Amino acid sequence: MAGTIAVDEIKRIDRYPGKSELTVIQSIKRSIGGAVSNCSIALAKIDPNLPIEVVTLIGDDEKGRFLRERLGQYRNIDLKQVKVTGDTPFTDVIDDSSDHSRTFFTYKGNSVLFDEDTIDVANLQAKILHIAYLLLLDSLDQTDSEYGTKMAKVLKRAQDAGIKTSIDIVSENSDRYALVVPPSLKYANYCIVNELEAGKSVGISLRNSAGALLTRDIKQVLYRLKELGVRDWVVIHAPEGGFGFDGRQFYSIPSLQIEKQCIKGSVGAGDAYASGVLYGALQGFDLPGAMKLGTAAAASSLLEEDSTSGIKSYEELILMYEAYPKKEQISI
User: Fold this and answer.
1) What's CA 238's distance to the chain center, in Å?
2) How many CA atoms does the CB half-sphere of 113 hold within 13 Å?
3) What is the distance between the alpha carbons of residues 159 and 38, in angstroms, rounded to a whole number?
4) Helix (H, G, I), strand (E, B), or coil: what is residue 211?
5) What does DSSP say about strands 90-96 and 148-149: parallel, antiparallel, or unpaired?
6) 188, 193, 133: which is closest to 164 by C-alpha?
7) I want to staple 256 with a disulfide (CB 3.0 to 4.6 A). Which of 143, 149, 249, 324 is the partner?
8) Residues 44, 81, 168, 34, CA torsion sign
9) pTM of the prediction?
10) Cis upstream peptide for 133 (omega within 30°)
11) In a 10 Å sphere around its CB, with 0-12 CB exposed, 13-18 middle and 19+ buried, how is residue 242 labelled?
12) pLDDT digits (tens, 9 = 90+) for 62-80
């Protein structure tokens, strides 16, 4: 796991305020955040015997020590490639109780220093290198004359070393997707993103102005992402369900039906989903099997306020997927 790490300060409110309005914070909870910590701990909980390498930057500060302590609780997470420099990134996560939506205010800190030389590919033992998030790692988002971006260069370097690659993207309100994302797709084995990120990456919106999912366009977006170079799997996850394409067949896997009163938070659900899919890939699952595991992992994360406390073991996730009712399957 490489790239973004942060401390999440999760602040629950009754309803997100309008500009210049005041709202009351109901509770505050600190958690690990960012793809590196979220995915590493999710995978460690899914399989306590799975070796996980962490490549990231933390600061010599209180937040950095918090992250190291939390990751160090898992014996299968290797922290030898964690480097100490600058300020540890953090995110204020505003959790709206009325609809369980999340709004993020992020301080990038030392993540801007994570560059093409931070990952020593020659010393990695990993079978899959998951790097996230595109659009949040400034140095890797920079252009490269040969590969398009520095991120693409790192991904190509990993593939040349026999390591499969995986990418995720941060949800951002910008027009940078078309410039930053496509170069990395050429050197990604797995692309696991949400519907907003997928649509913006290819210029096809998957939600209308009212927020409804445009199901008729999902297949086109999956195909376009694969056409841009993803070697193995393209997966789009949304609250309504997961959608995948392996180059031969399209798949639609419905989300689990979780009672509203049981949902404590949605922080990290996307990372939990990606972790389940990647674990399936490591174990040789077919794409729909991996997506079912990702679906259960994401659903389990909703049962706790933070990003990883709700994640269950592989055996428990399989039972959860079978036991819980499903949302209506969407045809694509």
Assistant:
1) 12
2) 15
3) 24
4) coil
5) unpaired
6) 188
7) 324
8) positive
9) 0.90
10) yes
11) buried
12) 999 999 999 999 999 999 9
